[in-house]
UniProtKB/TrEMBL annotation:
GO terms for molecular function: diaminopimelate epimerase activity. The gene is dapF. It comes from Rothia dentocariosa. Substrate binds at N24, N88, G98, N99, N182, N215, E242, R243, G252, T253. GO terms for cellular component: cytosol. This is Diaminopimelate epimerase.
Length: 312
């Protein structure tokens, strides 16, 4: 039988915090100087839902200046003080997480590490670049930056770049790979029953897969909705298998990628505003022209800090 110190290493006796964004849950650690050694095995044990606390990901709040990539970001964004050091539930390092950024900002705010009133913004450094996060009445909205096709013009011309197999599908389906700072492959299914019938306990197979692997989103369209301004709003349902995690209740960058792919398939008449319904709730995705003259994706949704935990 192991004791707490040997089980939890440097985290033994420390207070961690748990939060989520539309059911996509994370464990937070404040370590400004980035001094605590975090190896993949330790993170996986803490995130284990049976033998640990349980979470889709682990996020360390550290000063941006302590990371090599962060130092470069500070040259252009000196006010991006906090770095979101994000790990998947299996301990692997990931570039970005849209739900994670919202939950991270909520954590910084509730812990008193930043002041952020409704309508104000804060810059957060991530391995996927600096993200600008605004506090809204309902939660937080993030400029996720520009989206792109992972396979470039080939995907743009054909609308697909891979084939995806998953349990519950009789035959492989065409997929389109989208980058949101991290890789995604989106598959459109024609019927809601096919979405509900998927077995995502095992990883879908993507051929060919992006070089560093990919998250896989399965989507079905739902009836167009109308906003208060009488604009058309697209709507889709989505389930996602996240690399290094498995199926999750939500994925922020995945929602952005799914909306981008669906909008591309819809052609010039497709709307710029989308609601993405995931098992954990609903996210809003809007396409806008960014200051760099590229098309940016704005992700909005709730985030909540729910518990403090001390590891024994």
């Amino acid at each position: 039988m192991t004791d707490g110190v040997s089980t939890w290493g440097e985290l033994a006796g420390r207070t961690l915090t748990k939060g989520h964004g539309t059911g996509n849950d994370f464990i937070f650690l404040t370590d400004p100087a980035s001094e605590i050694p975090l190896d993949a095995d330790l993170i996986a044990r803490v995130c284990d839902r049976h033998f640990g606390i349980g979470a889709d990901g682990f996020i360390r709040a550290a000063y941006t200046e302590n990371f090599r990539t962060g130092q470069n970001m500070l040259e252009e964004h000196p006010d991006a003080i906090w770095f979101m050091d994000y790990r998947n539930g299996d301990g692997s390092i990931a570039e970005m997480c849209g739900n994670g950024v919202r939950a991270f900002v909520d954590y910084l705010r509730t812990e008193g590490m930043i002041d952020l009133e409704v309508g104000e913004t804060v810059k957060i450094a991530t391995r996927g670049g600096v993200k600008i996060v605004a506090r809204t009445e309902e939660g937080y909205a993030i400029d996720m930056g520009p989206w792109s096709f992972i396979h470039g013009d080939t995907a743009r011309e054909s609308g697909e770049d891979s084939h995806v197999s998953a349990r519950g599908l009789m035959t492989p389906r065409a997929g389109l790979s989208i980058s949101m700072g991290n890789p995604h492959t989106v598959v459109m299914l024609g019927q809601e029953g096919k979405l509900d019938g998927l077995d995502l306990n095992s990883q879908p197979q993507v051929n060919p897969a992006p070089e560093k692997g990919t998250n896989v989103e399965f989507v079905v369209p739902v009836d167009l909705e109308t906003s208060d301004e009488n604009k058309n709003v697209g709507a889709i349902r989505m389930r996602v298998y996240e690399r290094g995690v498995g199926e999750t209740l939500s994925c922020g960058t995945g929602a952005c990628a799914a909306a981008a792919a669906t909008r591309f398939w819809g052609g010039e008449e497709a709307p710029d505003e989308w609601l993405v319904h995931v098992p954990g709730g609903t996210l809003a995705v809007t396409f806008v022209l960014g200051p760099d003259d590229l098309e940016h994706v704005v992700l909005a949704g709730p985030a909540q800090t729910v518990a403090k935990i001390e590891l024994h």
